[in-house]
Fold these 2 entries.
Entry 1:
Amino acid sequence: MISNRMKRRQFFKRSTGFIGAASMLSAVSQIGCIPSTAPAMRAELSQNKIAFNTAIPELSKVGDGVKLENNGLEYPILLIRKSESDFVAVSTECMHLGCQVRMQRIILRCPCHGSAYDLEGKVLNGPTEEPLKRYNIRMKENIAEILVL
Ligand code: FES
């Protein structure tokens, strides 16, 4: 009788441990799978500049962002609308160990170790200690000219 109770207790303890581990794995894998709220777009890179037309529905509201990709870029660039006429461009390279950050509404989050940045690339949460690389932008009407140096 006692031995059966012990077996049940051990079984329950092991099952609970397994369920806890499975839940944790599930949570970790979900963090890695959180979709970016910035759609990926192809951008033309010429003479260290990207000229991107911002008059698109994906950038129509303050806080909207797009991920600009080009084979000439080591990391894609996030272009984010700050106001009616102002944008910010930051690299997606996490300054901790180089994973790609993702835009998740009002923060930029790294799926690797959880670093978080605000939409201007400033550090909100470690382990990173450095802000994201920012690019200078010149606006010409609706065209954002991003200087990739
Ligand atoms: S590489 Fe981004 S938090 Fe570690």
Note: Residues 40-147 form a domain with the Rieske Iron-sulfur Protein fold (CATH 2.102.10.10).
Entry 2:
Amino acid sequence: MREKEKVKFLLKFLHRLYGYSNKKKNNPFLVLISTLLSQRTRDETTDAATERIFSVYNTPKEFSDAPLEELENLIKPVGFYHVKAKRIKQISSILIDRFNGIVPNNIEELLTLPGVGRKTANCVLAFGFDIPALPVDTHVHRISNRLGLVKTKEPYKTEIELTKIAPIEELCFLNTFMVKFGREICKPIGPRCYDCGVRDACDYFEREKN
Ligand code: SF4
């Protein structure tokens, strides 16, 4: 099966398994802060911290003026909360000074913000602006290589290659549900290949089954 057909096969399977994404477009600033908080932190911890912090502060100006210690207390126990609180203040100040307090809606400018890499920038585009973009995390990278959709060593290359073969309207969906699929079935260690509906198209399964 060629790569484009494999992506279609995977998408069909993921839609059957998880339905369709009902993720609504969100406030881009909230997506940006929440994605920064999520680095090396569990989803539930990130969601709770995002809710706590946005129940007190909302705008880049408010975040920039907030006392550092208070931000730290609000986001605790996310990983590296000292560093992240400082970064949130720093980013908020930059947004005010260089972008009129508005989160930019293009990858080039997003990447100029401290601590913002391609994954975070693509999350902001996809989930904050509803712009087709593919955030590639460890799950998307691993599954794409195991299946043989791409043959890449770095997430950046996976993003570029996958974007060429996946339907543009499915890019955000791919991230959301490949992450879920990676946690539940195609796990980093001990993937559940015999429960997996795409095993007939999977290079890894073909190699490992004997
Ligand atoms: S067959 Fe195994 S390795 Fe391949 S996608 Fe499914 S769970 Fe992952």
Note: The chain has a mean pLDDT of 93.
